[in-house]
Amino acid sequence: MLTHLTRTIATLCIVGAARVAMAETAVLKNPLKATSVTDLLVDILEILLVFAVPVIVFFIIYSGFLFVTAAGDTNKITTARVALTWAVIGGVIVIGARAITTVIENTVGNL
């Protein structure tokens, strides 16, 4: 069994090497639209923003729901206030990241 598997692998390697030897040139196309590292980072940030903004909106709505259902209970109001605070902080971080990226991109572009 092992020798049969070894022979099969060796045959596939020889055939693959022969195909590579017969090929004239191999052309690799860039699947990404980014042509530089800054473009790649901006594209990654744009993808993250697509997911982060709805999550931030959800948590702001959720904290509003917590405020409404607190019914005067100080512990629940504190929980809702903390949830709203962290949702706003997360939103500021996400928007700030985009702003910082834009500033860095423009600065590097001017050099």
Keywords:
111 residues; mainly alpha; 3 helices
Topology (elements, then pairings):
Elements: H1 2-22, H2 37-70, H3 74-110
Helix pairs in contact: 2-3
Q: What's the quick description here?
A:
With 111 residues, this protein is mainly α. The chain is built from three helices and no strands. The chain has helices at residues 2-22, 37-70, 74-110.
Query: Which structural class is indicated by helix and strand composition?
Result: mainly alpha
- Radius of gyration, taken over Cα atoms and rounded to an integer in Å: 27 Å
Low-confidence stretches: none
What is the residue-mean pLDDT, rounded to a whole number? 81
**Number of discrete helical segments:** 3
Order of helices and strands: HHH
**Tally of discrete structural domains:** 1
Q: N-to-C terminal Cα separation, in Å? A: 63 Å
What form results from the Cα inertia axes? elongated
Compute the number of strand runs. 0
Binned, the helix content reads over 70%
Strand content: under 5%
